[in-house]
Amino acid sequence: MADTLKPATRLLRAGRPHRGWVNTPVSRASTYVFDSVQHWRDTRSRREQERLLSYGARGTDSTHALEDALVELEGGYRAKLYPTGQAAIAVLLLAYLKTGDHVLITDAVYEPVRRFCAQHLTRLGIEYTFYLPDGSDIEAKVQPNTRLLYAESPGSLVYEMLDLPKWADWAHARDCLVAVDNTWGAGLLYRPLALGADISVQAATKYLGGHADVVMGAIVTTQRSWEPLERASVDFGQTVGADDAFLVLRGIRSLPLRMAGHERNALHVATWLQQRPEVARVLCPALTGDPSHSLWQRDCTGTNGLLSIEFASGITTADVEAMIDAFALFGLGASWGGFESLVVPINMNNARSVSDWSGRGALLRLHIGLEDPSDLTADLEQAMMHLKHRAAA
Ligand SMILES: *Cc1c(COP(=O)(O)O)cnc(C)c1O
Question: Would you say residue 1 has pLDDT above 90?
Answer without folding.
Answer: no
